[in-house]
Amino acid sequence: MTVAGGPWAGTPWPAGLLGAEPGRIGVLEAPIVDPRVQIEIKRMMPVWDPSRPRRAKDAEDVARLERALRRRAAGSVPSPDPRPPSGTP
User: Fold this and answer.
1) Which of 1, 77, 79, 84 has the fewest CB atoms within 10 Å, counting from its CB?
2) Coil, strand or helix: which one is 66?
3) Angle value at C-alpha 6, between 65 and 23, nearest 5 degrees
4) Given a cut of 80, is residue 51 above it in pLDDT?
5) CA-based Rg of the chain, rounded to a whole angstrom?
6) What is each CA distance from 10 to 3, 5, 32, 48, 66, in whole angstroms?
């Protein structure tokens, strides 16, 4: 799998980019970027591309992803609800 467009078009994505489990919104499923890969990208982007500054938003995103991974490991993340979100036919 490679980057589709922009300045890095054609560059290979990291191995394991897509998580083993699909993401879900109601009954819809789609491949998602593995949270551990998201964390790596957020932490490493300023190293890989020094012109990109470290951002507070990225640190907040990493903290949020790490909390979610800890909750999942502890078994406190509920199973996805197979019903569509309210207001969805």
Assistant:
1) 79
2) helix
3) 35
4) yes
5) 16
6) 5, 7, 20, 16, 29
User: What SS3 class is residue 78?
Assistant: coil
Q: How many CB atoms lie within 10 A of CB 74?
A: 8
Tell me the residue length of the chain: 89
Cα 63 from Cα 69, distance rounded (Å): 10
Question: Are the C-beta atoms of 85 and 28 separated by less than 8 Å?
Answer: no
Q: What is the mean pLDDT of the chain?
A: 82
Tell me the CA distances in angstroms from 78 to 38, 73, 75, 82, one per residue in order: 21, 12, 8, 12
C-alpha 84/C-alpha 71 separation (Å) is 24
CA 67 – CA 10 distance, rounded (Å): 32
pLDDT at residue 87 tops 60:
no
**Confidence band, pLDDT 50/70/90 cuts, at residue 80:** low
What one-letter code names the amino acid at 87? G
